[in-house]
Amino acid sequence: ITSGQQVTSSKMATEVTEVEVKVETPVNEDTEPENQQSNEDEVIEKPKKKTAVEEKSGVRRRFKINVPGIISTDKSSKKPPTYKWAQQQLPACRPVYNGLHVFIIFTIIGVIFIILGGVFLGINVNLQEYRATYTNCNTTAFVNDSVNGSCQLLGNEEDFPTCADYVSNISRFGRDQRNDMNLCLCYCEVTIDIEEDMTSPVYVYYELNNYYQNHRRFVNSWSPRSLRADDITEERTDCNPLRRSNGSTIFPCGLIANSFFNDTLWISGLDVSQENIAWRTDRETRFRNPSEEDREDTILPPNWLRYIDNGQRNESYMVWFRVSAFPNFRKLLGRVENDTVAAGTYTLNVVYNYPVVEFNGGKHFVISEVSWLGTRNLFLGIDYIIVGGLSIITGVVLLIVHFVFSKWKTSDKDFLQREY
After folding, report:
1. Backbone φ and ψ of 255, nearest 5°
2. Residue 20, Cβ neighbours under 10 Å: how many?
3. 404 in helix, strand or coil?
4. Torsion of CA 387, 389, 393, 395, to 10 degrees
5. Are 197 and 127 within 8 A, CB to CB?
6. pTM for the structure as a whole
């Protein structure tokens, strides 16, 4: 219906008023509209079916449908979806706590912690653990080197009342000098009194005090490729300061390998196994031994008199590489194969090699039962009980605050609806 005409038919007027869909008919850019009319009064026609000419010329009709709660079908629209999930209008619980609620929550948490702490404490109290210090053990004898079969003693036996004195005296000699002199090793004995029978599993440990394995330079002085025995003759900068000596590569390199704990400890009458004491990943992937040909072009670390048994596959060596975060620590030495360690007096035999007196350190031997929580450790249970008690005290204090200051209408829901 063009402008200037009047609608005389009631049927046509009805059709015009029923049309509420906006029709956009873009004009093809390649074709010119034949009759352009600019009129002020226009009436939108009811959409018609496309003719053959329109289909051929590419004329399109697009309908914009926006129904509340449904994503718009108009892909050009940037309007976000209006359903509740997208608008974060789903029903939600917004609890408003008062002093009584907080008291109940803190009390429940405190009771749970106290119960767990009591259980942990009861398990640890029942574990048997015995500890023997041998830092300054009295010299029992001077033994031959098991490799060379004979040894030489510097001075008289009376000059070295303790093994610590003897080790401090011979530590001034280098490895080559000690091997040439074939110096004796100091042997001492320490008694351990086991008051009650110990049931399997039972583990033995050595403990060092005032030994800072967590020092930055110490922790960083090792090479993962050296542990895997990959190109051991190649110079490793990550092993500083122990990577080369006299033009030769040190293997194993680094401070951790050089400081490997080399005391020999055993208890008479107990069968102690050192198998499977290291992490499974260390045994299977991390540590490898080089071939004898590759080792010929390297030298040992300064503190090593000879290559250790089984080389880098030695599980005590693997355990040593798991450095401790604290200056006082234990390292797993072995597992007692006996089903029961009967009560009685046992002798700890020590071949004393490792010096600790120079840095005011200490050496101890520990034998302990083990539970699913580990060795005897009362700290965990006591810690849980303390946290549980503090939680209950906090709940009581908040409850008192709630009643004392109740006139302030704490946790009033009206505060959530006020405008400030």
Report:
1. -70, -35
2. 6
3. helix
4. 70
5. no
6. 0.70
